[in-house]
Amino acid sequence: MAKIVILGAGISGHVAAAHLRRKLPKEHKVVVVSPNSNYQWIPSNIWVGIGRMKSEKILFPLAPLYKKKGIDFKQAKAISFFPEGDKTETKPYILSEYVVGDNKGKQEKVTYDYLINATGPKLNFEATEGLIPGENKTYSVCTYTHADHAWDGLKSLIHEMKQGKKAKILIGTGHAKSTCQGAAFEYILNVEQELRKHNVRDMAEVTWISNEFKLGDFGMDGMLLSYGGMTMKSHEMIEMIFEDRDIKWVLGAGVNKIEDGIAHYENLEGEYKTETYDFAMLIPAFSGHGFKAFDKNQNDITEKLFKGFMIVDADYTAKPYEEWSVKDWPETYQNPSYKNIFAPGIAFAPPHAISKPRKSKNGTDISPAPPRTGMPSGITAKLVADNIIDSIKNGKESLDHKGSLGNMGAACIASAGYGMTQGSGVSITTYPIVPDYEKYPKTQGRQLGKTFGEIGLAGHWLKLALHYAFIYKAKMRPFWWLIPE
Amino acid sequence: MTQRISKYQRFKMMNPVIQFFKFIYLSIKIMVVVAGGHGGTRTNN
Questions:
Q1: Domain around A52
Q2: Chain A residues with CB inside 8 Å of B20's CB?
Q3: ipTM confidence score
Q4: What pLDDT is stored for residue B2 in this prediction?
């Protein structure tokens, strides 16, 4: 009998748990440890943040589903890792602490044979002074509760604009090293469309602020893509959309401090500037959770497991941008020191960024961290689950399933406005996610036919279809596994 | 100079009939890209 413990029940953790349970005989135990009671389909938070979707539509409680499917669920948070056990516990374990119910505050050693760390990122709002969701007129759409607050803030502002108030709206990244520009991009286009729907567009100045060097970088070093029979650079496409929507942009901006209605930032020229606003949605920096790890003698071995996020089979050798290779990226997401620990999705430490790193004239790093999206999170979680299943069934380590971000495609269906007839979406696919300059030297490291962009109503329908399909899949309804990650 | 979205392009982007066929086309094309397999990069896969 094998016991597989999964930390986290987001896209990655939930996908791993679902596949393990479906493919492993019942004698093997699948345990999910997560402080969250609900599963949430994060990509639809954008629509919650503009009041077009209720947060209840994007989430469901995990406990009843897991009970029905035979997955053990502990609503607890991981505190520290003991991959060798300790003096009293011979098996490796995770020290966890329950967060609700009668057991709240009680700690438990959760032993395992295999561990999947799918804890995702910590939303590191503290890294930017004053960036607190719901305060200083800044909001976030990173969780459904944040998105609910964002809509409350936006709704009040729209009401004031209807009374004649002129307003400034600022959307983008809230730290010099933030990632997830895609979410902010979706939100700014949706907000702009909502302003038009409420007939207050002419009362608002909408501005994009970002740590990208060029528009359309998205933390992926931009891309060359096919668009309507042309070959276009992603920055040209996004500029075209922003011009069309009358959205201004500030680039190369490392936001470092927020005051009530004022964003302070440093740009690549080394200038310290400010942008004022009446409503802002700024994506924070992401970081690891700060877990500690100990060996069986209680010695601190955190550096064997973590480098901010979890260390996996990547090449972490520090090297200049010009020497970065697609081969640096992990393939199996296995920790090299403890072979029964894996970190798919957002939990693994990337070897380096994807976008070219840039510093301001003052030496401040201002460039996007690598993006972390749902699709690769699901794919990497499934391949980790498949390797564990093979290892259990074969009785020896099996790592046949591989999935480097340098040999994997991804689709970004960015909503550009909600509505069955008036909605819009920007559909972008990219292959591979991490550019492979050896394979595709003339097309910025990507395969042109598989890297394309489309703008239009179909994009909105597609995003809506994915919303329903992936919630169906997450609820593990009949034949859910036929839907790809 | 930044390219602009022309009136004709906008018509095509928002026309439900054209976009219905675009929806089918995009669904298939995206499926080909993202479900078309993945692998390692360090050896021939």
A1: 3-122+287-405
A2: 458
A3: 0.92
A4: 66
State how far the Cα of A338 lies from the Cα of A349, in Å rounded to an integer: 15
pLDDT tens digits, A83-103: 999 999 999 999 999 999 899
Cβ proximity of A277 and A261 under 8 Å:
yes
Positive or negative torsion for Cα A436, A439, A443, A446: negative
Which residues have CB under 8 Å from A126's CB, separation 6+?
A: none
- Is residue A360 within 8 A of residue A266, CB to CB? The reply is yes
For A245-283, give one letter per residue: b (16+ CB within 10 A) or e.
Answer: bebebbbbbbbbebeebbbbbbbbeeeeeebebbbbbbb
Binary contact (B19, A456; C-beta < 8 A): yes
CA distance B1 to chain A (A): 9
- Say which CATH number the domain at A34 has: 3.50.50.100
- Note whether B35 contacts A: Cβ–Cβ < 8 A: yes
Q: Test B14 with A422 for CB contact under 8 angstroms.
A: yes
Residues of B in contact with A236 (CB under 8 A): 2-3
The domain tally of chain A equals 1
CA of A75, closest CA in chain B: separation in Å?
Answer: 33
Altogether, the residues listed in chain A come to a count of 485
Is A30 a domain residue? yes
From B44, which residue of chain A is nearest by alpha-carbon distance?
A407
Distance, CA of A263 to CA of A282 (rounded, Å): 10
Summarised one tens digit per residue, pLDDT across range A336-390 is 999 999 999 999 999 999 999 999 999 999 999 998 788 899 999 999 999 999 9
Residue A319 lies in a domain: yes
For residues A257 and A355, the answer to whether their CB atoms sit within 8 Å is no
- Asked, for residue A359, whether it belongs to a domain, the answer is yes
Does residue A294 sit within a domain? yes
B7 to chain A, any CB pair closer than 8 A? The answer is no
Instruction: Compute the nearest-CA separation of B7 from chain A (Å).
Output: 11
> Following DSSP, what letter does each residue of A457-479 receive, concatenated?
HHHHHHHHHHHHHHHHHHTT-TT
Identify which of A65, A49, A53 has the alpha carbon closest to the alpha carbon of residue A149.
Answer: A49
Which residue in the set B12, B22, B34 is minimally distant from A411, CB to CB? B34
